[in-house]
Design goal:
Layout (H helix, E strand, L loop, with lengths): L1 E6 L12 H8 L4 E6 L12 E3 L7 E3 L1 H12 L6 E11 L2 H7 L4 E6 L7 H6 L3 E4 L9 H12 L32 E2 L2 E2 L9 H19 L1 H5 L1
Parallel strand pairs: 1-2, 1-6, 5-6, 5-7
Antiparallel strand pairs: 3-4, 8-9
Length: 225
């Protein structure tokens, strides 16, 4: 998989890909992530990529011309299956979308900034609009990093245990059950006996029951869906 991220603040996207699972995935060659500074495609020598909005109003808007130049340059080198725009009014990101994106070959992620982008960018270039929640960030960079993390960890070979991602919350429309590790007893707090019984069928049955209870208590809307 190749991910190209278009941004006016590429420095915000350095550290997420320089540590832990994402770094190992890149080093293994399972994914490549490239950031592109939109100012390199600016409309003038001063690096201008934004302007006032027509009709008046507060806030600057990212211009269509630099974005067109950047996307066209990337598309001249390879085909892309998705061109994603990170925006608060997009489709709310979830595990289903992460699963879908993990199967893609090449994607572009455009990070919004300021007041957003010229609507013509959304009309003519973007194939999917994604939000990470009903709130507004200073820009789309942190949201893009979240999407990348959720997607990359699903690529075969990224996690040490291939089945780990399949048992995460939301994969089966339920939250994950409680989990425990050693010691079996700490300060009088004991791990449920079933988990140390060695009875695998009973353990799985217990986990399913606990997952259902956890979901009913914390996210009943998942079961309604």
């Amino acid at each position: 998989m190749r991910i190209d991220i278009i941004t006016v603040l590429p420095e915000l996207l350095q550290s997420p890909f320089e540590a832990s699972i994402l770094k190992r995935a890149i080093e293994k060659g399972l994914v490549s992530v490239h950031t592109h500074n939109l100012r390199e495609y600016a409309v003038n020598k001063y690096g201008q990529v934004d302007d006032y909005q027509f009709g008046g109003g507060a806030g600057m808007v990212l211009m269509i011309e630099p974005i067109d130049r950047c996307i066209s340059n990337l598309k001249a080198e390879r085909d892309y299956e998705e061109i994603i725009y990170m925006t608060p009014d997009g489709e709310t990101f979830n595990q289903r979308i992460a699963n879908e994106l993990s199967l893609k070959g090449n994607i572009i992620i455009l990070c919004g900034h300021y007041k957003g982008v010229d609507q013509r960018v959304r009309d003519h270039f973007i194939t999917r609009e994604i939000s990470v929640g009903d709130f507004v960030l200073s820009g789309g960079e942190l949201a893009a990093a979240i999407v990348c993390d959720a997607v990359i960890r699903l690529i075969p070979g990224v996690l040490g245990n291939e089945t780990s991602a399949l048992t995460d919350s939301f994969q089966d429309d339920m939250l994950a059950p409680p989990i425990y590790t050693r010691p079996a007893e700490y300060k009088g707090w004991k791990v449920p006996d079933i988990l140390t019984s060695g009875n695998t069928p009973k353990i799985e049955e217990w986990r399913e029951e606990q997952a259902l209870k956890h979901t009913l208590r914390n996210r009943p809307d998942l079961l309604e869906e």
